TrEMBL record:
ATP binds at residues 13-18, 118. Mg(2+) binds at residue 17. It comes from Acetivibrio clariflavus (strain DSM 19732 / NBRC 101661 / EBR45). CDD domains: SK (cd00464). Catalyzes the specific phosphorylation of the 3-hydroxyl group of shikimic acid using ATP as a cosubstrate. Keywords: Amino-acid biosynthesis, Aromatic amino acid biosynthesis, ATP-binding, Cytoplasm, Kinase, Magnesium, Metal-binding, Nucleotide-binding, Transferase. HAMAP family: Shikimate_kinase. The lineage of its organism: Bacteria, Bacillati, Bacillota, Clostridia, Eubacteriales. Monomer. This is Shikimate kinase. It is found in: Cytoplasm. It catalyses: shikimate + ATP = 3-phosphoshikimate + ADP + H(+).
Amino acid sequence: MNKSNIVLIGMPGAGKSTVGVVLAKAMGKPFIDTDLLIQQKQDMLLQEIIDKHGINKFLDIEEKVVMDLDVKDHVIATGGSVIYSDLALNHLKKDGKIVYLKLSFDEVVKRLKDFKGRGIAMEKNRTLLDVYNERVPLYEKHADITIVCSNKTIEDIVFEIKESIYMYKA
C-alpha cells in the first residue's frame, strides 16, 4: 500500500508548519496543522489550553484531534508533543510517512527565543533542554525519514523531503 500522507514531526521551532505549507504547495497536496485544529476545536490558543486545563488534558485533546484525522494525500504538521502518544503516531503511520525535522538544541533555542507563550507541553519544573533530551529519541524512533534542518533554507528542506519520499517509495 502506498502511504499518501507526509507527516512532519519535530521540536517546536523545527519548522513543521512553515515547511509543511511550502511542501504542500510544491507537491500539490492539502495542508493540515494539528496545532491549528486544536485551537479551532477548543477556541483557545495552545498556551491557554495548557494554562487552563494542564498538560495532561492538553495531550489528551491533541491525541483526540489526531485520532479524528481521516485524510489521504495530505501534508500534516503535528505539534511537537504528539510524540508522547503511540496511539496517535500509529494512526498517522497507517497512511503516512513520518518525517522528522531534526534541529540541534542550540538552533531550537535560537528559533524559539521567547517560548513561554508558545504552547509547549512542558511541566513548569522542566527546562527546554530536558524536553529536547526526552523527545529526540522518540522522534528518531518513530521517523521513517529524518531531515537534518540546521543551516538549510526552507526550499532546501522541501527539496530534501521530496527526494527522500521518492527514494522511500522505490
